Amino acid sequence: MDRARVEAAVRELLLGIGEDPDRPELALTPKRVADAYAEFFAGIGTDAVAIARSGTVHAEDGERGQLVIVRDVRFRSVCEHHLLPFLGVAHLAYTPGERLIGLGTLSRVLDAVAARPQLQERLGEQVAATIAEGLGAAGVLVVLDAQHQCVTTRGERQTGSTTVTVAATGTLGEPVARAEAIALIGAGAATGAAPAAGTDHRTEA
């Protein structure tokens, strides 16, 4: 990341909204924003597939199981439309092939893909594809449930609204298997039950 350009851009932004970037309270704001952006966008250029591969081990037939699910993995990303954060939980499931992946590695993959300007729909698809490629999984399911600050803090200000998206590959893209995995995850709005008030329920197959 070019920190100098980010800091200069923040200074111009402050001028653009009619503020004085030289007043004491704002003097360090460009640096602080650059620090935050370095963290928010650390995933740009990161090879998430390599992260997934680094955490895999060979599994014998009796060790694989039929389905692996990790629920309630916290994540945050930045919406590319308004550069405002969205935060939520991810539920990650996969059908093992020849290899298993460390459960902590799944969250590292999610973090790497989320730390870029994103759309929630694309984030789910990219995480599913990354796990499928890096692990060689027979099927992957990713359910994301997030609250977007571009919805909660601007426009209609729907402060209770969350968005649920579902992405699936391989065997878990088949309707019966996907429904079974979602039922096990217990992700309320994605199970087919009536969405909670204010919830935008999108399914990305």
From TrEMBL:
This is GTP cyclohydrolase 1. PANTHER family: GTP CYCLOHYDROLASE 1, GTP CYCLOHYDROLASE I. Zn(2+) binds at C79, H82, C150. Belongs to the GTP cyclohydrolase I family. The keyword Signal does not apply. Residues 7-184 form the GTP cyclohydrolase I domain. It catalyses: GTP + H2O = 7,8-dihydroneopterin 3'-triphosphate + formate + H(+). It comes from the Bacteria. It is an enzyme of class 3 (hydrolase). Pathway: Cofactor biosynthesis; 7,8-dihydroneopterin triphosphate biosynthesis; 7,8-dihydroneopterin triphosphate from GTP: step 1/1. The keyword Amino-acid biosynthesis does not apply. Keywords: GTP-binding, Hydrolase, Metal-binding, Nucleotide-binding, One-carbon metabolism, Zinc. The gene is folE.
